[in-house]
Amino acid sequence: EKPYVCEHEGCNKAFSNASDRAKHQNRTHSNEKPYVCKIPGCTKRYTDPSSLRKHVKTVHGPEAHVTKKQRGDIHPRPPPPRDSSSHSQSRSPGRPTQGA
């Protein structure tokens, strides 16, 4: 079952979940190319990380390693919040005990 239909006019692709549809729309129907080749002197950009990996391997050689973070700084993600409670005791100091 594929209830999530691409919202781009003329495209009838359908997907089983909304995130796959969003990925398709961003990679297929958008001009945004956030995956940037980091090899000095190369200006290639791609909509899809697999396209960037293929480019680096075929143009720059397999020794030109691409990491997961070979993305442009268009939408940088903030670091995840630190959860201090996971390293503390089971009962927080200053927290009232049950029945108090």
Describe it for me?
- With 100 residues, this protein is α+β, with helices and mostly antiparallel strands.
- Among the domains are: 1-32, Double Stranded RNA Binding Domain (2-Layer Sandwich); 33-68, Double Stranded RNA Binding Domain, CATH 3.30.160.
- It contains 2 helices and 4 strands.
- It has helices at 18-28, 49-60; strands at 4-5, 14-15, 35-36, 45-46.
- It has a two-stranded antiparallel ribbon.
- Strand 3 and strand 4 form a beta hairpin.
Q: Which secondary structure elements does this structure contain, and how are they paired or packed?
A:
Elements: E1 4-5, E2 14-15, H1 18-28, E3 35-36, E4 45-46, H2 49-60
Antiparallel strand pairs: 1-2, 3-4
Major pleated sheet? 2 strands, antiparallel
Q: Number of DSSP strands?
A: 4
Find the CATH topology of the domain at 33-68. Double Stranded RNA Binding Domain
Written as H for each helix and E for each strand, in order along the chain, the element string is EEHEEH
> Which band does the percent of strand residues land in?
5-15%
> Mind telling me the CATH class of the domain at 33-68?
Alpha Beta
| Physical arrangement of strands within the biggest beta sheet | 1-2
